[in-house]
Amino acid sequence: MNSDMMLSCKRANDLRVFKFAELKAATKGFSRSLVIGEDMNSDMMLSCKRANDLRVFKFAELKAATKGFSRSLVIGEGGFGCVYRGVVMAADDVDDGGDGCLDVAVKQLSRNGFQGHKEWINEVNFLGVVNHPNLVKLVGYCAEDDERGIQRLLVYELMRNKSLEDHLLGRVNSTLSWMTRLQIAQGAARGLAYLHEEMDFQLIFRDFKTSNILLDEDFNPKLSDFGLARQGPAAGLSHVSTVVVGTIGYAAPEYLHTGRLTSKSDVWSFGVVLYELITGRRAVERNLPRSEQKLLEWVKPYVADSKKFHLLMDPRLEGDYSLKSAQKLSALANKCLTKNPKSRPKMSEVVEMIGKIINDLLPPQAKTEPKPEAEPEPEPELELQFAAEETEELIEDIDSRKQETNGNYKKKVFDFKELRNRSIGRLDWRLWAPGSVKHSA
């Protein structure tokens, strides 16, 4: 009762007893650059011992890999900073002294950008525990704090065919064929279906758009940039209430107006991307006449009149497409863009519907046996629900923030403390064990 109970130097239950000096060295003197979250009065730090087989790169290694972060190797830019093409030593050759090389994309976090450390941590922790053919693979990361300042970088597998946005906006020479567009749509839908339905928890992407759909050398799509992703609602709850973030032109109307986020918000964004694939236009294009700037408004008369439908097709296809399949894809987009979120399909259903469209275009010997179909539901009317006045207010708000930050604003950073204190939608990927997430082949 009056005696002190001491922790024996001989550890019990296989718990290790660390010396303070050992942990101080392991965290580089408790460097702020290694903080991955603050829990009440304690900090959780990214251990020097890498988790989930992610490689830990030194800054000097990545500087050499990108030739001193040469502007000639820049393959992308945004509020977060720059993405460079680079070459690093293959993982298998690091330990055995081999000379194999691996082409990578290196994202360097801007010290002045809007996308901050917490979003960087989101990427490391989420992509470090998931595995799916339609999610970009994270090779490793770098976190160093030295005389040059705080350096945080992410290293991804290189997507040789850039982003879907690059192709639709003509930044590359080749034009995506109609079949390739359908296959990209189906692959991206599979990625979202995995996030929504196939893991032990639900993840809402929250920033689904063409620039976040990367294409590998075979044009297989892979979702990227999970900095704004949010864990879905807790059991028994219908939505997550959160601050509105994302990209103008892709956000679902109920999310814009109320801040209520569900997986069906991603489904709306997917519907917008389907129309981008059909038309070759971006969701919002300021350089066009005012009546044509908002894609969902511009397509309405062409979708409503079957005789005019061909006029909304991407002219770069040069007529090389199936009009019937394009109309079916448009009908699917309309389902995704239904005003009532509950009426929108699940992404697994979207995958199946696109599969049927693709199957109808294949030669007889390549067709797959279709599943028995249920009674067809009436097609919803095109409900492209961006309220003009509220959208304009949101655009003006974004523009004003952009001016305040010298044009660097693109996204709003998570408030992790707020997320942890909420009773719903907790996002604490730091504590996930690799085995807690289902992996797809």
TrEMBL record:
Q: What class of enzyme is it?
A: transferase
Q: Where's it found, cell-wise?
A: Cell membrane; Membrane
Record-listed ATP binding positions: 107
Per the annotation, which location comes first and is thus the protein's main one? membrane
* Organism of provenance: Artemisia annua (Sweet wormwood)
Q: Which UniProt keywords apply?
A: ATP-binding, Cell membrane, Kinase, Membrane, Nucleotide-binding, Phosphoprotein, Receptor, Serine/threonine-protein kinase, Transferase, Transmembrane, Transmembrane helix
Q: CDD domains in the record, alphabetically? A: STKc_IRAK
One GO CC term of this entry? plasma membrane
Instruction: From the Swiss-Prot or TrEMBL record, give the protein name.
Output: non-specific serine/threonine protein kinase
PROSITE patterns associated with the record: PROTEIN_KINASE_ATP (PS00107), PROTEIN_KINASE_DOM (PS50011)
